[in-house]
Amino acid sequence: MDLQVLNFLGKSLNINQLKQIHTLILTKFNSIAPIYPRFVEELLNLSHPSYARKVFDVMPKREERLYDAFITAYTKQCSYREALGMFNSMRSEITRVPIVTLPPVLKCCSALFMLGLGKQVHALIIKCGFESDCLVENALLDLYAKSSDLVSAKFVFDDALDRDPTMYDILISGYSSCGDDVAAKMLFDQMPEKTDVSWNSMITCYARSGKLHDAMRMFEKMQLEKFQPNERSLTTVLTVCASLGDLDMGLKLKKYIDDNNMSSDMTVSTALLDMFLKCGAVNEARQVFDRMKEKDIVTWGSMVAGYAQNGRSVEALTLFERMKRQQIKPNDVTLVGVLSACAKLGSVKTGEELGNYIKVGGFDSNVSVAAALLAMYSRCRNMKKAWQVFDRIDEKNVMCWNSMISGLAFNGYAGGAINLFFEMEKLCLPTSSAGEVVEGGTDDGSFKSDCLNTATLAPYAQKKETNKTSLKPDTVTFASLLTACTHVGLVGMGLEYFNSMRKDYNIVPQIEHYACIVDLFCRSGELNEAYEFICQMEDPPNAVIWSTLLSCCRKNSNVELAEVALKKLIELEPENSANYVLLSNIYADAGRWQDSLQVRNLMKAKKSPEKYCM
Q1: Dihedral sign for Cα atoms in the order 328, 333, 337, 338
Q2: What DSSP state is assigned to residue 253?
Q3: What's the pLDDT score for residue 19?
């Protein structure tokens, strides 16, 4: 009878058949029969741990090998807490811990980030004298590396008598995760025998540390050493190509992927799609997208957002409609992308339809989506809807405030933008000296400005926010504020905000902030102040800043500064004929016809800056 039952257990059985065998065992054998442990093991092998646990719990005598079988089965199924619970039961009933049980237990500690428990297991390992076992050493090393305890990891590594390539790979991966490319490279160079894992870890390490060119060089060296790229290395290098904008290398990788039939891997195809989009090769990205047999929501979102980011708004909206027809629920990335596309089109009707879809679907509870939605309404010049969305957001982050401030500035409500920033400042820890209300803050909560005919907005001043520490203006906030100041000619306030960036918020002004101040000076007719401000810039002024000054020189008939501006523009963009035409017109307005003709001839000849002397 024992042999017959054992023969049954050796076959692939469904749960009903197993229950029948269980009934047979209960009627024919007593509770301590040898058939019980075998039946439990077979249940675990057939992935029925719950059923196996019920049988196990009623057994009067539990063998050591069954504990180990449960721990191993739970670990394979990622039921880490159950595995540790079984280990705890095992320790209470069995004095001697088998060595084969310890690596799975350490893996559970690593997966659950239970470093403290892992160290207790390490102490048990030392007590039992198992610390020199290769599998135990690798498990300990993996625990400490994934827990970012690299000091303990290095101790285990240095204490190992026989270091196999796996130990090097684990520690290099640990250094990679922490961004310590120097330590990772030193260990990599010490490896007597390098592996695919170690090469991939080094490439990933450089990529995470922002050393993108080093990552590319490591990838090229890997190939020279006759190691073939796999899915992991290709995914990482495609990400590096996307960050560098290296389309040529990306195309070479695509050829390698096609030649080696690796395009079926979704991770590789998604990375390839993302690389093409970030390099501006939208058509190539669409080919990858259409060729993918399986598309997850990340893939759809990337393609929609890619169309939007590359200025192909109609195609973004068309693909989004296709998503809806296929009943694919969009994620926040997809919705932000399609809202951005709608905002660029400025289509009021499409914006209304999209806004209703998001509201009915409850997607506006996501802060990123809500911020993009109110930005879309702002670009479509529907400030009433934008304000309604803003007012509904319970936990407003800086992105929401930026979208609203920017929308007000974009639609000509400069005073409203400044006053809303003043309300934002009240919720921040630092307080700027520039935060004075611009003829606003009336009892009904509406904002008004002498610079606007009428700017009545929804009330917000009375609302309370609890989370003050997470709200802090950023570069986008100040760019919108400076734009608002430019629209109404508030030079003094604009300069105060500009100086407040570094003083109150430790924000280094970017080129766009300098451009706003130059534009502010120019619109106010203060050309000399604008030129002095440009000369004091920390970074070299770009063509936009000099073009702004040049354009203003014509309005104010300032030939001297116009000549200075054009000299700089010839250095930055010698092929741009618009700059020559503008200076020629300035000369003509001043009656300097010979100089006007000379500039026209220079434009036609496209002479170098060295040959041009005013």
Answers
A1: positive
A2: H
A3: 65
Compute the chain's Rg from CA coordinates: 34
Give residue for tokens 């560098």: 244
Are the C-beta atoms of residues 225 and 194 closer than 8 Å to each other? yes
What tokens appear for 119 in the block? 């160290």
Which candidate, 559, 567, 553, 566, places its Cα nearest to that of 525? 553
Give 234: exposed, middle or buried? Use CB within 10 Å, 0-12, 13-18, 19+.
Answer: buried
pTM for this entry: 0.70
Question: What secondary structure does DSSP assign to 292-333, as a single string?
Answer: -SS--HHHHHHHHHHHHHTT-HHHHHHHHHHHHHTTPPP-HH
The conformational region for residue 347 under phi > 0 = left, psi -120 to 50 = alpha, else beta, is: beta
CA dihedral 528, 533, 536, 541 (to 10 degrees): -100
CA 542, 544, 545 angle in degrees (round to 5)? 70
| Dist. CA 404–CA 402, nearest whole Å | 5
Phi first, then psi: give them for residue 168, nearest 5 degrees.
-60, -45
Rounded CA gap, 426 and 420, in Å? 10
| Chain-centre distance for alpha carbon 113 | 23
The separation between CA 447 and the C-alpha centre of its own chain, rounded to angstroms, equals 36
User: What pLDDT score does 21 carry?
Assistant: 66
| Three-state SS letters, 55-103 | HHHCCCCCCHHHHHHHHHHHHHCCCHHHHHHHHHHHHHHCCCCCHHHHH
C-alpha 120/C-alpha 565 separation (Å) is 71
Cα 426 from Cα 444, distance rounded (Å): 18
Distance CA 124, CA 136 (A): 12
State how far the Cα of 475 lies from the Cα of 493, in Å rounded to an integer: 17
**Tens digit of pLDDT for each residue in 580-613?**
777 777 777 777 777 777 777 777 766 444 444 3
Domains of the chain, CATH where assigned: 295-394 (1.25.40), 510-614 (1.25.40.10)
Report the phi/psi class of residue 332: left, alpha or beta, with left for phi > 0 and alpha for psi in -120 to 50: alpha
Vertex 531: Cα angle to 525 and 534 (nearest 5):
125
Record the tokens describing residue 389, joined without a space: 């969305």
Residues of the chain short of pLDDT 50, as ranges, are 1, 3, 32, 430-469, 607-614
| SS3 of the chain: helix, strand, coil, percent, to 5 | 70, 0, 30
CB 66 within 8 A of CB 37: yes
